[in-house]
Write a structure and sequence with these properties.
It is a single chain. With 228 residues, this protein is mostly helical. 79% of the residues lie in helices and 0% in strands. α3 (49-69) crosses α8.
Length: 228
């Protein structure tokens, strides 16, 4: 089915998966750049237009993180979370438009995002708590449980890579397949409810990825609060 999937960018460089994902990712970055440029071109005290949208977006990201780690910490890690959220959201949205493919429908792309989160939250956890204290936390509250708890914790942390990447990939890939079948079976006007549904799913997946990233970072940098 992938070999028969038409994309506008595929007519330029072919429909190989590498070109399709790379070209659509470049398109996503271009769209984000234009949005950011429009939002910061004429900054106003009372925001309007694109500035208002982006300030609402950033405020929403901070509010999301404040429930997990407090507003101060949420602001510290907001640049990463906001960057991931807007990349995932725009990627999901272009996949809803016929003739384009969401980069997030490719497992290599979503796996890369998951690895970024995995490496980052472990890095800040080690930086915040120290190498020994960070991994000491994996051993559980009692030394006698360490031989059991440590491998379980290690497996649990590595499973987060699979969880983040496959949840996003599976949802968006399923949405793409659903949209393809819908457009083949019914006229263009009838699938409109489906488009709204796919848009909601795209927003939901960006939200889930973002909130889980906040949760993972909070767990790595706020170990002393967990112990209490």
């Amino acid at each position: 089915m992938e070999g028969r999937l038409f994309t506008f960018l595929g007519t330029i460089g072919g429909h190989g998966q590498e070109w399709i994902i790379l070209s659509h990712y470049v398109l996503v970055i271009g769209i984000i750049f234009l949005i950011a440029r429009a939002a910061t071109n004429k900054l106003q005290l009372v925001p309007t237009g694109a500035q208002n949208v982006m300030e609402t977006f950033v405020g929403g990201i901070i509010t999301m993180g404040a429930d997990t780690m407090g507003e101060k910490n949420a602001r510290v890690y907001m640049p990463l979370i906001a960057s991931l959220a807007i990349v995932i959201f725009v990627s999901n949205m272009i996949g809803v438009i016929p003739g384009f493919e969401a980069p997030t429908s490719n497992i290599n792309f979503t796996l890369s995002l998951a690895l970024i989160v995995f490496v980052y939250y472990n890095y800040v956890g080690i930086k915040k708590n120290g190498f020994i204290n960070y991994f000491k936390h994996f051993m559980g509250p009692m030394p006698i449980l360490a031989p059991l708890m440590f491998p379980i914790e290690i497996i649990s942390h590595f499973s987060r890579i699979i969880s983040l990447s496959f949840r996003l990939f599976g949802s968006i890939r399923g949405d793409d397949m659903f949209l393809m079948v819908l457009l083949m079976l019914v006229p263009w006007l009838l699938p409109l409810p489906g488009f709204f549904l796919l848009t909601a799913f795209g927003f939901l997946q960006a939200f889930i990825f973002s909130i889980l990233t906040y949760v993972y970072i909070a767990g790595s940098v706020m170990m002393e609060h967990e112990e209490h």
